[in-house]
């Protein structure tokens, strides 16, 4: 991607300089009739003739060297007024003059009379403007001419003047003009770069998604293998035991083995049901139900061995329009999770209350807790928190995923409030209809 952007930058940069060169060439061509006009040529010749006459007056002692410099500058000032007015008058015939500044100037002008050299302006000094206006640093040189005039008349053989005369052109906002000409190219390049960035981002996101899917597949395979190992091993051991003639005659032992076999079969069925549920959309059948009574029934049926489960319902009776089966499954899943991850403090709190337009159900434990960055991830399919009780607590990473799917179907929300070491509180909000 960086290579493509670099190539585009190189091409645009070259195109920019080419467009600049072409635009300046067009401007030069447009202003040439003005710069090389007969009027300006006449003014140049008039200045040259005046300088010649002034030098002659100096040669004849009618003008001092100091006065010569002053008079030459005065003559240049008078010609400047005429030249500037001419340039202004040409704007109607040459509209390009409204977009450019033209400056005619002497960068060097030297006079020599009777072997004495006088400098009107030296190369190291500020140039003398003949016509035009002040320019900024973006001007370019249009033309440059060196001149050297020596009078070889018998009377004037010791007289001469020489110097350098330059024309500069300053194009107002030439950068905008060049960029305007490149508009479509810049637009296409911008769109192409944006497309490359979007494509790169999409590819990067797809790779991350594929990586995540691969990790989920691996985790799921490991988890389900771990979950199935115990029942499979138990069933294998029971089947071998039932082949033992001594156990066949021992009724109590045989019943115990068959009970174990049934439990392991139910466990495998539970795992299969979980996986199937994750791939199927549950049907919603809402009915009016006393939510307080439903929660009390869930608590009564829940296996709360080895833990303390408290329930707090306000009010003690409240009718809610919801799907009993789905809500029951969600609350049961949350209670199971709280029991699994409670650690040594096996205290679980179930609360139900009305809050504005919602009925709120919260399940709180005092276990290991969850970091904030994991709060959203725990509701992803097959996701399990990579720290804490991962090797001690069994599961497929489907419980919270299924719970969120079912709550979404009920039109509610489920969130978690948790910090490492401070337990977790899962909060369900169901709109009161």
From TrEMBL:
The chain crosses the membrane at residues 182-204. Residues 223-433 form the Histidine kinase domain. Its EC number is 2.7.13.3. Keywords: Kinase, Membrane, Phosphoprotein, Transferase, Transmembrane, Transmembrane helix, Two-component regulatory system. CDD domains: HATPase, HisKA. SMART domains: HATPase_c (SM00387), HisKA (SM00388). Pfam families: HATPase_c, HisKA. One of its GO terms (molecular function) is phosphorelay sensor kinase activity. It catalyses: ATP + protein L-histidine = ADP + protein N-phospho-L-histidine. InterPro entries: HATPase_C_sf, HATPase_dom, His_kinase_dom, HisK_dim/P_dom, HisK_dim/P_sf, Sensor_HK_Regulatory, Sig_transdc_His_kin-like_C. PANTHER family: SENSOR HISTIDINE KINASE RCSC, TWO-COMPONENT HISTIDINE KINASE. This is histidine kinase.
């Amino acid at each position: 991607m960086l290579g493509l952007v670099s190539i585009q930058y190189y091409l645009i940069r070259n195109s920019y300089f080419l467009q600049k060169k072409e635009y300046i060439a067009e401007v030069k061509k447009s202003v040439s009739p003005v710069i090389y006009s007969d009027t300006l040529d006449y003014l140049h010749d008039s200045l040259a003739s005046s300088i010649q006459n002034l030098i002659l007056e100096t040669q004849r002692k009618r003008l001092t060297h100091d006065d010569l410099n002053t008079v030459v500058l005065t003559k240049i000032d008078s010609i400047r007024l005429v030249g500037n007015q001419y340039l202004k008058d040409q704007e109607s015939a040459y509209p390009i003059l409204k977009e450019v500044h033209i400056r005619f100037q002497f960068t060097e002008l030297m006079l020599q009379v009777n072997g004495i050299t006088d400098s009107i302006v030296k190369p190291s000094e500020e140039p003398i403007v003949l016509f035009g206006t002040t320019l900024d640093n973006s001007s370019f040189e249009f033309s440059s001419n060196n001149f050297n005039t020596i009078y070889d008349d018998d009377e004037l053989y010791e007289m001469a003047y020489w110097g350098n005369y330059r024309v500069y052109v300053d194009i107002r906002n030439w950068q905008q003009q060049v960029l305007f000409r490149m508009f479509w190219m810049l637009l296409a390049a911008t769109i192409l770069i944006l497309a490359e960035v979007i494509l790169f981002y999409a590819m990067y996101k797809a790779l991350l998604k594929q990586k995540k899917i691969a990790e989920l597949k691996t985790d799921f395979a490991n988890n389900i293998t771990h979950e199935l190992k115990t029942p499979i091993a138990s069933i294998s051991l029971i089947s071998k035991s039932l082949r033992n003639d001594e156990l066949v005659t021992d009724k109590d032992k045989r019943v115990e083995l068959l009970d174990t076999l049934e439990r392991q079969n139910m466990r495998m069925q539970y795992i299969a049901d979980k996986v199937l549920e994750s791939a199927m959309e549950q049907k919603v059948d809402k009915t009016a139900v006393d939510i307080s009574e439903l929660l009390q029934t869930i608590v009564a049926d829940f296996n709360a061995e080895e833990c303390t489960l408290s329930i707090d319902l306000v009010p003690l009776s409240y009718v809610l329009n919801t799907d009993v089966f789905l809500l029951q499954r969600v609350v049961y899943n949350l209670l199971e999770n709280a029991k699994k991850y409670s650690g040594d403090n096996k205290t679980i709190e179930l609360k139900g209350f009305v809050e504005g337009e919602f009925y709120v159900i919260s399940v709180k434990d005092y276990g290991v807790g969850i970091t904030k960055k994991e709060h959203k991830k725990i509701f992803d399919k097959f996701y399990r928190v990579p720290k804490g009780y991962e090797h001690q607590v069994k599961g497929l990473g489907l419980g919270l995923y299924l719970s969120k799917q079912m709550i979404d179907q009920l039109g509610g929300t489920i969130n978690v409030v948790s910090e490492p070491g401070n337990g977790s509180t899962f909060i369900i909000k169901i709109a009161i209809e």
